[in-house]
Design goal:
Length: about 250
């Protein structure tokens, strides 16, 4: 991608799934990359998966003090921050009537408050420097109803609204977009779904399969590059046309 070489990139939730694939893609684009993740065990072996990282920092994005310390460490290790992939997120699959107050708070604290904390901290740095790109991970669940994910959907709808507001306020200095993946086969998704459930989902997606983390990473690389210099204030779905057909409830490959 044009204009990515030597850029300094921070990826939250970078130790696994979409975050790890995105960090890998930016390293392949000759960027400096720092990842943030709260999973100490995943970070312990990350150098073998992502050789060449500038730093792998343990931080919980729902804790403002940890965020500020981690972003300061990332900026110091790379010299500055040009691109933020604001990706950390969790999900808890529950029926709406069974969601507890603690579970609601956990999901919203990471997926929405955490996105806000990281975005605001990095945006202040970027505005002071005079340029930057912030890309938030939303979800098709933020704009389309999904059963068993009321808290997750609420958090991702909030990320989308936050993205729009940030793009307006931070222009023209900082470009802000969101990526809304559909079903992507990540460790988080695999932990929640049986083989039969995955197969049922695949039959509702016109492309007939889950997305790959590397495919979402490629979209992030494009949106961060100079090829996307006029792109801001947008949400980009990447879902194999799943939502194009209203979740394709009648779609079948049989």
């Amino acid at each position: 991608m044009r204009g990515l070489k030597n850029k300094n990139v921070v990826v939250t939730g970078g130790a696994s799934g979409i975050g790890q694939a995105t960090a890998k893609r930016f390293l392949e684009e000759d960027c400096k990359v720092c990842i943030l993740d709260r999973d100490a065990s995943a970070l312990a072996g990350i150098d073998s998966v992502l050789p060449g990282l500038s730093a792998a920092i343990e931080a919980d994005v729902s804790d403002l003090e940890q965020v500020q310390a981690a972003i300061g460490q990332a900026a110091e290790s790379m010299g500055s921050i040009d691109v933020l992939i604001n990706n950390a997120g969790i999900s808890i699959r529950h029926d709406f009537l069974d969601i507890t107050a603690d579970e609601w708070d956990r999901v919203l604290d990471v997926n929405l408050k955490g996105v806000f904390y990281v975005a605001q901290t990095v945006a202040r740095h970027m505005v002071e420097r005079g340029s930057g790109v912030i890309l938030n991970t939303a979800s098709t669940a933020g704009t389309t109803g999904y059963p068993h994910y009321a808290d997750y959907s609420a958090s991702k709808g909030g990320v989308i609204a936050l993205t729009y507001a940030m793009a307006l306020e931070l222009a023209p200095t900082v470009r802000v977009n969101a990526v809304s993946p559909g079903y992507v086969l990540t460790p988080m998704q695999r932990a929640e779904y049986s083989d039969a459930m995955l197969d049922a989902v695949n039959r509702k997606i016109p492309l007939g399969r889950h997305g790959k983390p590397e495919e979402i990473a490629a979209l992030y690389a494009f949106l961060a590059s100079e090829d996307a210099a006029f792109a801001t204030g947008q949400v980009y779905n990447m879902d194999g046309a799943e939502t194009t057909g209203g979740l394709c409830s009648q779609w079948t490959h049989d």
